[in-house]
Design goal:
about 425 residues, alpha+beta, UDP-n-acetylglucosamine1-carboxyvinyl-transferase, Chain, 2 domains, 5-stranded mixed β-sheet, globular
Amino acid sequence: MANLLINGGKKLQGTIKTNSAKNSAVAILCATSMIKGTTTLSDVPRIEEVYRIIEILSSLGLKISWTGNQELEIINDGHLNPDKIDRESFIKTRSTLLLMGALTGEMKNFSLPKSGGCKLGKRTVNPYVISLKYLGIKVKETNTAYNISYKNKKAAKFTMYEASDTGTENIIMAAIFTTGKTIINFPSSNYMVQDLVCFLKKAGAKIEWDNISLKITGVKELHPVKNYPIMPDPIESMAFISLAITTKSNLKITNCPIDFLLLEIEKLKVMGQKIKISRSYKSKNAHFNLVDLELPVSRLKALPDKIHPQPYPGINIDNLPLFVPILTQAEGSTLVHDWIYENRAIYYTELSRLGANIMLHDPHRVTITGPTEFKPNEIICPPALRPSINILIGMLAAKGKSILRNSYSIDRGYENLYERLNKIGADITVLDS
């Protein structure tokens, strides 16, 4: 866990590129446990969350090695053993729950430890359990583990209990080796689900997607994929948007997956933010539309309505927190309703220690009143990724020296962030912990 010394209040300038998506990378890595042979991935973010997944998959029996700066080679000889899973790494990331569905192709009975990740209150696994049950897969929860078992998997038609990203990814992977056609109504169509589907189709999965349902025809096996590039991360794009606006800096942000930022951009336009959007171009995997964004310094006013997340194409669950620093710079008050997570809104109040005017109503709602001027302070990162990046953004906007302790929460999701920010004018020093 690193500590950061931030000399804030500086205007940033230049260009910063959006790196690859954490949530896509971990899902696709888990999916390689379904594919015998050698698969290679490119544009894999070198972040703590990915390192934990690699440790877990390696303990499971996969042979994984970095063959370049962001290139991974994954060798799966088909001999996987969940009993040898690295429990210490497993409990540090919730992404490991993706193995519930991925491993059902090879195993009829196995156990996985309870997972961790961001500390955001009770996070139900009901969407996974209910969906897998339609295929004949039972998930029994104990105090320390999930026991997954089935006698015979069967294709089914059903509606998702909720549009859960991880739940949808789990049921997709479980259905791929299930004989017959599985139809899933109202699945999540968020960016990481689309990236996973794109990867699995290249591996030979038979997946069709219309406006309201996924249709998965079972196959006997998948084949290795060569050099699949992970998509850019729309949440990282939004973090840089928040950084530019909050620090009142003229930045150009490249490699932005525009289809997953459209509503966020519309909200910002209503607030008075000027945004220049380039012509679109395709991502390296040819599936996603990318643009470059420029955000001239603008005078902002509070939104006329509350802001809250929704399943795609609504405001992204992980983009909602990144509006919080922006709203501190807008004239007026805005209600932020983070209805999904029990504790995340409480972490938003940490910005009050930097001078923000934030009123907590309950574990889900805060009112933010601006404009306010950030002031330096010393703060310990909360155990949640997006609220932690908010504090870093606030410290970069505050004139003077701040200290941000225990930056692991940030390092889980952002690659080489401090060096990248220093290249555009930030002053961040990584201190010995």
